[in-house]
From TrEMBL:
PROSITE patterns: ADH_SHORT. One of its GO terms (molecular function) is oxidoreductase activity, acting on the CH-OH group of donors, NAD or NADP as acceptor. InterPro entries: NAD(P)-bd_dom_sf (IPR036291), Sc_DH/Rdtase_CS (IPR020904), SDR_fam (IPR002347). Belongs to the short-chain dehydrogenases/reductases (SDR) family. The keyword Oxidoreductase applies. Transmembrane segments: none annotated. The keyword Oxidoreductase applies. Keywords: Oxidoreductase. This is Short-chain dehydrogenase.
Length: 280
């Protein structure tokens, strides 16, 4: 029998809007016993919690700045005291900066991106993983990485660096769980191309990698999570780019990515969401 969310506790970060809210809606529809929502945006979080409650969900919303380790640890302790460790943890919160590296401000751009995209999933997972292992029940960890974690791209150096980092960390944790005999806790890492959530407003989808719709990404990530799929690349042509980059000489790949596929020009008209709200 496959993994079921029914009767389980689900925690979603960046849950106030976008894909985070869609993940939470899936948990409600499939009968999760408790849906825990983390987001820094208190106003939107309240709206989402109210809507999910009206749809029949049992919701616990917490305003959490996932760039702040102290807040993460305090909020995680409250969750464990009330509900125990979640059975499903979805590390969805993320931010992007689309500019040349030397235009990044070290504090507002570089540190902020690394704190949320790399350190937050590590800190949050670390806050719950021991209990998930010791509980000896089927549990799931989901990390939203990015196709940017597989190829270099101009005007997203820090973002790409953060996603390379989180992809390497997340898939390594998967292997550790398997090799140490903790196969009841499965890690799924999702690497989507650009998603139409507003976070990548202005970005252009490269050839063979059109802009993805949020619901499609959530549906495929959710199904993969339940099946224990280790790595999900969306669209699957991301795998083709990854493979070509691995076998072609650097300059040949640069020509293909820049002149043919359009990867290197995809961020030229990037505008973004226009604020610092996290969550895909």
């Amino acid at each position: 029998m496959g993994f079921s969310v029914k009767g389980k506790t689900v925690l979603v970060t960046g849950a106030a809007m976008g894909m985070g809210r869609l993940f939470a809606e899936k948990a409600v529809k499939e009968g999760a016993s408790q849906i825990i929502l983390w987001d820094i945006n208190g106003a939107e979080l309240e709206k989402t919690a109210a809507a999910l409650t009206a749809a029949g969900g049992k919701v616990h919303a917490q305003v959490v700045d996932v760039a702040n380790l102290e807040q993460i640890e305090k909020s995680a302790a409250e969750v464990k005291e009330k509900f125990g460790a979640p059975h499903v943890l979805i590390n969805n919160a993320g931010v992007v900066r689309g500019k040349l590296f030397w235009e990044h401000d070290n504090l507002r751009d570089t540190k902020f991106t690394i704190d949320i995209n790399v350190l937050a999933p590590m800190y949050i997972t670390r806050a719950f993983i021991n209990e998930m292992i010791e509980r000896d029940e089927d549990s799931r960890l989901v990390t939203l990485a990015s196709a940017a974690g597989t190829v270099a791209n101009p005007k997203m150096s820090v973002y790409a660096g953060s996603k390379w980092g989180v992809l390497g960390w997340s898939d390594s944790v998967r292997l550790e769980l398997e090799l140490e005999g903790h196969k009841h806790v499965k890690m799924t890492t999702v690497c989507p191309s650009y998603i139409n959530t507003g976070m990548f407003e202005g970005a252009k989808g490269p050839l063979m990698a059109p802009i993805l719709q949020p619901q499609e990404v959530v549906d495929k990530s959710w199904a993969g999570m339940k099946s224990g799929v280790p790595l999900i690349f969306l669209p699957k042509t991301v795998l083709l780019s990854k493979g070509l980059k691995g076998v072609l000489p650097t300059r040949a790949w640069d020509f293909l990515a820049g002149r043919v596929l359009g990867v290197y020009h995809s961020m030229e008209e990037f505008e973004g969401r226009g604020n610092d709200l996290s969550g895909k």
